[in-house]
Automatic annotation (TrEMBL):
Residues 1-10 are mitochondrial matrix. The modification Pyruvic acid (Ser) is found at S332. GO terms for biological process: phosphatidylethanolamine biosynthetic process; protein autoprocessing. It catalyses: a 1,2-diacyl-sn-glycero-3-phospho-L-serine + H(+) = a 1,2-diacyl-sn-glycero-3-phosphoethanolamine + CO2. This is Phosphatidylserine decarboxylase proenzyme 1, mitochondrial. InterPro entries: PS_Dcarbxylase, PSD-B, PSD_type1_euk. Its EC number is 4.1.1.65. Residues 17-375 are mitochondrial intermembrane. The keyword ATP-binding does not apply. Is synthesized initially as an inactive proenzyme. Formation of the active enzyme involves a self-maturation process in which the active site pyruvoyl group is generated from an internal serine residue via an autocatalytic post-translational modification. Two non-identical subunits are generated from the proenzyme in this reaction, and the pyruvate is formed at the N-terminus of the alpha chain, which is derived from the carboxyl end of the proenzyme. Pfam families: PS_Dcarbxylase. It comes from Gossypium aridum (American cotton).
Length: 375
């Protein structure tokens, strides 16, 4: 099985690399496989696969299994914090911690670092809270559909609108007027209002990072920030590899995901951890009781996302740059949406403006800078 997966991965990676060298960008094009996936019980299949991955492996066999996995998916076993014999199951091995010092965090206080090991798929600047993010050439999805109804982002958008007199496009949602949960009301607390009022003009940016099966699968904090709310969407569990992004509509919006929102020194910050086929589980270290990929009574999810406020007074959970936040079981994707310094005029090349230091297709590791700005 590992041999077949390895051969297929090498073939797919070679096609993608050849296309990039020729300057070819794949376009969105639904296929039969994408339609077939919609009728499969992917959540049940993922739970069954998760059970198999959690079965204890005999101690004598563990090093052989993990080395085979490492060869198939290019994992670096020298970075593992424990001897291979101590990982009881493939699941334990998959979410393993690393030796201290393997992921140094960029010390520049004016840098935003990668929260995960992975491949840069997309990044750029957004035109407001209702802007669209490219999934692939020819298809996009909105920020609000990814993050859900976000009063915090709306409040910041309104603040920026008042500052420069511009109009920010916003997507209306069915829940904004019909339901107001208690955490939304609490976001109007003086502490949050005061923080937002102190934020100067900021631009809204995004970055999409794909984690392959061989990558380190823990999520770290990209900056010092206060996490105010967690939102859990119980959706589907499509695969999230590069072929899936080219063939499945609204891939990240339809898949199960956990969204963390809060504030950092430059304004709004959100991390969307998107689940994927095979296990599909997302562990949240700041909320260990959270369970994802649970059985659902309804085949078509219509209920709003489950929301949880961290401390009603708006203080939230403080995370330092580089702190562990969550972990994926099997490959998946992280989407960052954040505010950062920007110039008010597109013609003004302001030295303090946030600039990405990455390119599409780059391999990146936890702690390496995604972008920098100047004071």
């Amino acid at each position: 099985m590992l041999g077949v997966l390895h051969a297929r991965r090498l073939y797919d990676d070679k096609k993608v690399e050849e296309a990039r060298e020729k300057g070819i960008e794949f376009e969105f094009r639904p296929d039969v496989k994408a339609s077939f996936l919609r009728i499969l019980p992917l959540r049940s299949i993922s739970r069954a696969w998760g059970f198999l991955m959690s079965v204890d492996i005999p101690v004598w066999l563990r090093p052989h299994v993990y080395r085979a996995w490492a060869r198939a998916f290019h994992s670096n076993l020298e970075e593992a914090a424990l001897p291979l014999e101590e990982y009881a199951s493939l699941r334990d091995f998959f979410v393993r911690t690393l030796k201290e010092g393997c992921r140094p965090i960029n010390p520049n206080p004016y840098s935003l670092v990668s929260p995960v090991d992975g491949t840069i798929l997309r990044f750029g600047k957004l035109n407001g809270a209702g802007a669209m993010i490219d999934q692939v050439k020819g298809f996009s999805y909105s920020v609000s559909s990814l993050l859900g109804a976000s009063p915090l982002l709306s409040m910041l958008a309104e603040k920026n609108t008042e500052d420069d007199g511009s109009t920010i496009e916003q997507e209306s949602t069915q829940r904004e007027q019909s339901k107001k949960s208690w955490w939304r009301v609490s976001l109007a607390s003086p502490k949050v209002r005061e923080t937002i009022s102190e934020c100067p003009m900021k631009g809204l940016y995004y970055c999409v990072i794909y984690l392959k099966p061989g990558d380190y699968h823990r999520i770290h904090s990209p900056v010092d920030w206060n996490v105010l709310v967690r939102r859990h969407f119980s959706g589907r569990l499509f695969p999230v590899n590069e072929r899936a992004t080219r063939t499945i509509r609204n891939l990240y919006v339809e898949n199960e995901r956990v969204v963390l929102e809060g504030l950092w020194q430059q304004g709004f910050m959100a991390i969307a951890a998107v689940g994927a086929m095979n296990i599909g589980s997302i562990e949240l270290f700041i909320e260990p009781e959270l369970r994802t990929n649970r059985p659902r009574k309804k085949l078509i999810p219509s209920e709003p996302p489950e929301e949880h406020l961290y401390e009603p007074k708006g203080v939230g959970v403080m995370l330092k740059k580089g702190d562990e936040v969550a972990a994926f079981n099997m490959g998946s994707t992280v989407v960052l949406v954040f505010q950062a310094p920007t110039s008010k005029s597109p013609k003004n090349n302001d030295a303090s403006e946030f600039e990405f230091s990455i390119r599409r297709g780059d391999k990146i590791r936890v702690g390496e800078a995604l972008g920098v700005w100047h004071a």
